[in-house]
């Protein structure tokens, strides 16, 4: 039995976590974090002893829990201060700088997979540039996220209030209590100061958690420069920016329509509005209402015409209506209380004679509403052809009212309750009032019916919903602060067209220009009715004669100043005495996007002149396409105006991260992916898929999986199975490194490697392999693997960076030998990470391991193979360098593990003072020797030969499962069986030039375990099977007396029959009418794959007939 003991550990981060400890041969901790983000089903094993750099030699398989232990790699990086550029710049002021900021996550909770993608991309870029010799600064921080944070804290406090209301003092006066019968809002109960303090407590609690989450990805962030968008320094920057924009006439206050959340009682930005298509009766939960509210229906009710013309008596405008009624259809019945007119189309013959007449309002006996005409508003074929005009609650109606010089009436207060109507509806929440109106109109005989919006061919409605609260958005006219964007937008468009700003992918350039056209965007509302945020630095001047500080008229005077003292000085200079007025600061706060738009320069101390300004402008920014205009465009607009510079040179945009089927991730769909569950567990993958040997997928596997996607797509379909694939690839890298490490124990290999180990990796290639190349000691497969590696490096340096930043001849090769011309692709692959990741994976698995390593293993101990083993070591180390930006933990551990083996250092004495991150990134110049020496064969021919041999081996191996020896059930000595096989099956080449070199033969032998013979054995006992097709030169010779070919024929026919049966099933599924489009496409792809398999099997069967 395991000796179990519960212990409590402190990780030095302020959070307590409960663990269970087990005493076995070694002491381990099996921990379960008390956190809903981590699955209780997954347990992670962490050694209690100090982390060890020799785990490459002690661990037979890759274990991300050990490799990604923060006390290993992160501790080393922090100790060496690799992420702080100050040391580098102190010795060389002219260093080339690459600066970035982390798009700040909100302090609202845990990170999602979109954050993980952005972080991974930026970290890969930062590490690439750092290894290319650049001074890199990547600044982390967090966003106060005004409305998002306030909403979450309100919900959290509401839960607490429901459990214990005594902890909430009631700070509301009787006059301030909402007239609506909503549950008490904890924000209003606590009061402004107390509520803000609760949010600061929340921020302090969650900030450390977010840091831990970011660090778990292995990011090279300079935490010494961490920012928070509501810090004093940022507040100073925000205030200064507001003043400069205001003084330039770019900020103004005006009444305008905005999107209003009644539950939160604030204006919200467009990005915080979600739209839901509704075409039929749908009940939704709305905050503040006990029962679900019905939407998606049209209410039909009537206004009675006052003194209708006699001609009206001959025609009704709606079935069931009276002759003196006009029936209206509306989805927002409650706004009829704010109606000031009815509108018809001037050409609608049904109502032409009524234009200029009046109707009586059923609830305002003394109010008569005019019937007017407007061709722009009314579409006669929709509804009844009569529209009620409620300009106080519809922007479209408001525009019509302005055209016809009609008054505007408001009937909702800030909480969405009916107010100032003088009717029984005052004080009712809008949706309760809606139902009460149905009841009262019914009593008056004016209510006709209710039907689905989509009935009779009606168009579905878009219901605007607040993404923060779930409330239904109410369009309202409010006095707000706005930024004039016309000139700012023009400057932003010019920056892109003049190539001062590069947008990736290219198609975003057209989208940018189109969206920023004056006709396609409006002024930016920057005020929010919240407690949490940057106060607006505007002070209202209240005359001492005013009865109330809330008195507001057209003569309102506002002073915009850095502080109230500065505002007082401004008024004093204008001749006002302090006794004549009082100053009240605007209670609103600024939109979160306003402060975020200043980040590229606010993080470096603007408006103050500091040394940090040398990091501005940023080299690049990476973010999601969905916030191109809400954040990035605004950063560009304000950056150009306030600093005179474009805030960054390049913007890289990735698409929306969706689930594997292309659906947007959401908790309601239960398809969201939590990156922490992947890093510390197996995510949402079932255990039977993952297997019992894998307990944790890890951060490096997640990072690599994320970067296999094409970022330029509008949607990125993330499949956790890709992470599992990368987790297995990590293990392949681990096994390759272990094999090489074991080979280093051999005296001749160790001597070869250790002699030049002190030199840089590039110099090792030039000195050792360059020397072999000069002496023409490189074998066919040596030349091939080096050339493949060089092409890979060119691909990655072209796709993971901007070549213009790093390519000072590093990626160009000088050669005078036409046989060794470097014919690399010239396609612009910049920022196409997926090309590099997939290329690297393919090179490692297929070229390095499946071919080159197999050839070396088969060669045994020969002097030439010692050279190849050394080349294998250099290839491995180069691959580790290449993949470091993507898999920083694994590559760092492998690099140190191999160094320890070569330096023969004991783990207890190994205290590294260097990191893989400080090494030079591979470049094509290292391999120039290969293209300058005069070999008898061209690189093109090397490629052709190795490709042919690989294809031959693949086809030969496809016969392996079908060749069953007639001795397979007989007990024979393995050596005798092997000898028998060598004589019973072999490869030949029938060609005019049938010569196969020793190197070619070695490759075939390694890949197939079948010997090559130059001459065919003249015997009727052999069948000769074309390896490719009937036109191939290569044949597989099989002794019919030694192999059961009848069994092979039967096995092939069985496989063909099974595949044909499966193909027929898929065809029938595709014929089903109900099958979805994506299902049909998937089935068609499967059918095509099966057909190719069948054709190959049929060819094999024909060879045996």
From TrEMBL:
<protein>
    <recommendedName>
        <fullName>valine--tRNA ligase</fullName>
        <ecNumber>6.1.1.9</ecNumber>
    </recommendedName>
</protein>
<feature type="domain" description="Aminoacyl-tRNA synthetase class Ia">
    <location>
        <begin position="187"/>
        <end position="712"/>
    </location>
</feature>
<dbReference type="GO" id="GO:0005524">
    <property type="term" value="F:ATP binding"/>
</dbReference>
<dbReference type="InterPro" id="IPR014729">
    <property type="entry name" value="Rossmann-like_a/b/a_fold"/>
</dbReference>
<dbReference type="InterPro" id="IPR002300">
    <property type="entry name" value="aa-tRNA-synth_Ia"/>
</dbReference>
<dbReference type="Pfam" id="PF00133">
    <property type="entry name" value="tRNA-synt_1"/>
</dbReference>
<dbReference type="InterPro" id="IPR013155">
    <property type="entry name" value="M/V/L/I-tRNA-synth_anticd-bd"/>
</dbReference>
<feature type="domain" description="Aminoacyl-tRNA synthetase class Ia">
    <location>
        <begin position="75"/>
        <end position="161"/>
    </location>
</feature>
<feature type="domain" description="Methionyl/Valyl/Leucyl/Isoleucyl-tRNA synthetase anticodon-binding">
    <location>
        <begin position="831"/>
        <end position="954"/>
    </location>
</feature>
<dbReference type="GO" id="GO:0005829">
    <property type="term" value="C:cytosol"/>
</dbReference>
<dbReference type="InterPro" id="IPR009080">
    <property type="entry name" value="tRNAsynth_Ia_anticodon-bd"/>
</dbReference>
<dbReference type="InterPro" id="IPR001412">
    <property type="entry name" value="aa-tRNA-synth_I_CS"/>
</dbReference>
<keyword id="KW-0436">Ligase</keyword>
<dbReference type="Pfam" id="PF08264">
    <property type="entry name" value="Anticodon_1"/>
</dbReference>
<keyword id="KW-0030">Aminoacyl-tRNA synthetase</keyword>
<dbReference type="InterPro" id="IPR033705">
    <property type="entry name" value="Anticodon_Ia_Val"/>
</dbReference>
<keyword id="KW-0648">Protein biosynthesis</keyword>
<dbReference type="GO" id="GO:0006438">
    <property type="term" value="P:valyl-tRNA aminoacylation"/>
</dbReference>
<dbReference type="GO" id="GO:0002161">
    <property type="term" value="F:aminoacyl-tRNA deacylase activity"/>
</dbReference>
<dbReference type="GO" id="GO:0004832">
    <property type="term" value="F:valine-tRNA ligase activity"/>
</dbReference>
<keyword id="KW-0547">Nucleotide-binding</keyword>
<dbReference type="InterPro" id="IPR002303">
    <property type="entry name" value="Valyl-tRNA_ligase"/>
</dbReference>
<dbReference type="InterPro" id="IPR009008">
    <property type="entry name" value="Val/Leu/Ile-tRNA-synth_edit"/>
</dbReference>
<comment type="similarity">
    <text>Belongs to the class-I aminoacyl-tRNA synthetase family.</text>
</comment>
<keyword id="KW-0067">ATP-binding</keyword>
